[in-house]
Amino acid sequence: MSKPPARIRLADAAFALFDERGYEQTTVDDIAERAGVGRTTFFRHYRSKEAVIFPDHDRLLDLIRERLATSSHRTALVAVSDAVRLVLLHYLEEGDLARRRYALTSKVSALRDREIASVARYQRLFREFIAEWMGDPTTAASLRAELMAAAVVAAHNHVLRRWLRGESADPVAEVDEAMGEVLALFPAPASDGSGPEGGTTVVAFRSGQDLEALLPALRRLVEGGSAN
């Protein structure tokens, strides 16, 4: 039976050692030795001990940028929701590794600080995209873009944490519903109704609420998006 790739063996070794000895007491040499590779191989796959723990945020941010770049003004909100789902799916694919990371970062303050910094990068990317979509340079619009980006990230993290704690049986459906709640809070910017960007766009999400409860939010969204 063939060995797992070195990158996987290094990650498994690192988390096993973190559990046994603690994060601070584990060195790069310890991880490499446990995985049966040398230091050179370790640094070929990971820049540091911390890098073994966290997902490839640069790659995830690139995936978000690519998805957002494919949208038009009309489909911007759909693109935001799709981008959030892409990040969630990455964590779901990691499975137990994501849960072990969550347990570790909950105990080590330095790792929590790094995770917070990573979250800020996602929020900044969404804020810049939303601000451009709004097309309004005013201070009020800038604040609105910041609030919307913060809500988008908070919705994703809320669902992700529920799944990590074993509280969500269907996190993909939950994140779709959560994004529906977020986007209903922020009506689309006004359109002059001319050209291909005119008209009304309706974005559908699954929700556990009945239609009567959803209608007020949907009405606010449509009226905000169609105002002249």
List the helices and strands and how they pair.
Layout lengths: L5 H16 L6 H8 L3 H7 L3 H5 L3 H13 L6 H19 L1 H12 L1 H26 L4 H26 L6 H14 L26 H16 L2
**Poorly predicted segments:** 192-198
Outline type: elongated
Mean pLDDT: 86
Helix content: over 70%
Number of helices: 11
The largest β sheet comes out as: none
Order of helices and strands: HHHHHHHHHHH
The gyration radius over C-alpha positions equals 21 Å
Which structural class matches the secondary elements?
Answer: mainly alpha
Beta strand %: under 5%
The end-to-end distance, rounded to whole angstroms, is 67 Å
Strands, total number: 0
Describe, in plain words, how this protein is organized in 3D.
This protein has 228 residues and is mostly helical. Helix content is 71%, strand content 0%. The chain is built from 11 helices and no strands. The protein has helices spanning 6-21, 28-35, 39-45, 49-53, 57-69, 76-94, 96-107, 109-134, 139-164, 171-184, 211-226. Helix 1 (6-21) packs across helix 2 (28-35), helix 6 (76-94) packs parallel to helix 9 and helix 9 (139-164) packs antiparallel against helix 10 (171-184). The radius of gyration is 21 Å and the shape is elongated. Mean pLDDT is 86; it is low at 192-198.
Which properties best describe this structure?
mainly alpha, 228 residues, 11 helices
Brief overview:
The chain has 228 residues and is an all-alpha fold.
